[in-house]
Amino acid sequence: MSLHELFRDPESPDNNSPTLYYDDETDTFLFQSWKVVDASRLTAITVPEHETVIEFPKRILSLFPRTADEVHVRARRKAV
What we know:
Blueprint: E1 3-8, E2 19-23, E3 28-32, E4 34-35, H1 39-42, E5 54-55, H2 68-79
């Protein structure tokens, strides 16, 4: 498995999250962010046992890759 960090929230106080990773072996993304634990919010949605719910600030949406090409360019850039 080869994970590539695509971005970290530049406004994070400890520079750890939210963070988006790309796994080039499975062609999937891993997203590290704040776990939602507020029961009143979680009851509004159905979450299977094998999943969790995370949240992230709207400001980082512009950092998400928009195309497969952009994912690969960012992954290569981080590897250099």
